Amino acid sequence: MVHHTHAAKLFLTMALLLGIFFLPLGRAAWQKPIQPSLSGGVLTCLAIHPLDPAKFLLASGHDIFESERGNAWRPLWSQTDANAPFKRLFSFLHLPDFVFALSSDTVFMGDLKNRSWRVVYHDVSRVPISFAVHALDPDRWFVGTERGLLETEDGGKTWSPSPLFRESGPVPLVFFDEARLFLATENALYISAADSLARQVFTLPGTENESAEAAGGDRDKDASSYLFKIHDLIATRNGSSKLFLATRNGVFQSMDHGYRWEPLPQSGLQSTSVLQLASSAEGDRLYAATPRGIYAYNPRARRWTGLFEGLARDGAQSIAVLNDEKLLAITEEGFVQYPLAPFSPETGPDLTIYQPAEETLTLFKELLSMEPTAREVHKHVIQYADVSNGKIKRWQTGSRLAALLPNLSFSKSFSRSASIDIDRGGTNDPDRYIIGPADSSKSGYRTLSWDFGDMIYSSDQTSIDSREKLMVELRHDLLSEATRIYYERRRLQIDLLFTPPASEQEHLEDLLRMDELTTLLDGMTDGFFSKRLERIYEEKPELNGLWTFTPGNAEGGTTFNAQRSTNNVTNP
Question: Does residue 450 lie within any of the structural domains?
């Protein structure tokens, strides 16, 4: 018990310090506003409105919507081709009246003023997967296709292969930073300055000799740039020369307009496959959408922090920062938004910190020591999902022991036929047929055989190895999700204790979120987590007082000032 108490005290101390350090994020959580109509399919992508920075555009499979005030939506356009859903939206500040939508084989251009749409590119033999408008010439556009780079100088009326890039492979990324054109292939990045021939400036580490098949063999069925290894490129909006590149192997940063690249740390990321990036000028924050959630990068701490509060399912595919006030995202739950707190300098006025009463802390430490540990949760997740290594070992042992059992072959046959003879008569007498006894025959055999070579190496091992790889990946995904939910629940408990809600409604919402996280853990452990909690609170009913809201909740604790600083925290 002493060990658990000491660990709990250390955990609470670290949580308090981290809470001070990341205080600008406050109690923000993902919010799920009213969703647009999903009659055109699930939501796929979003983009900032080029005419109004306070608005944004959202696309589903067949519909495009414009955000309105009060979480309302205004339909912009619908297309009826079920085989060509919208995959990407593109807007450009130097072409503010228009938005471009990319589908499976077509690029549409929408006029935001008169609400009209027209096709500007369509070619089933050269499937479009990326798009960009020249930064200095609004009539010069580029389309990256599955078979090279195309460009037009007359606003989409005629297209031809671009002389800036002569590769004939896929071009999943086209991006302009001022007058510099960036192009991406399967695993390399090129730059073209002042309309010069594009030259390579970056190769994704560890991919020089990889086969192009690694990106997926059915690209014609689903021509999305996310199938390739380089996914997105953005430039910061604070006047610096920083560029960030999203790849399957994490995020890379350039400090010299894209000529030299270095990887950002991956600490804190549960998935290194970064699909899309967004940045906020306030606080120099970088945000990443991954299949395992949305993360914020802190350049001072050189680590990523997961933004999971309010999300039951964390997969994300598209993000954008709206007016440095909200982080918008499309996740498995639909469209969600995250309020971004105003940036505060590293040093500033004193911060008021709430310290719970000593008896409350003692009670909470006792609860921590009694609740299931992450290791116990992992054990029950593995047991309930039946993804332990023991199954594979049993299969491997069984495949070898099977060589001791013989292969038994058994065959039996039986045939029967009539016996007929002919008695030929004379010239005037007819022939007579004489039927004799039936002819019958029987045969059969039984064989036993052994292949003792299977005891050394069974042909079943190849199949078992393949299943083992799939099971390891499944177990990793399950344990990662369980770990994320477990510690998000723990952070919520600490938040309730050290940051008492200002209203009973907010308190109830926090309790509802805690119950939701507990239920998610139950779903992965066959109810183990709730069963343990029920036993704990039956044995210690006074623990319920930790989650009771009273208007004077803060009066039971102590407040003190802590100056926000990069190096120290001032104690009371």
Answer: no
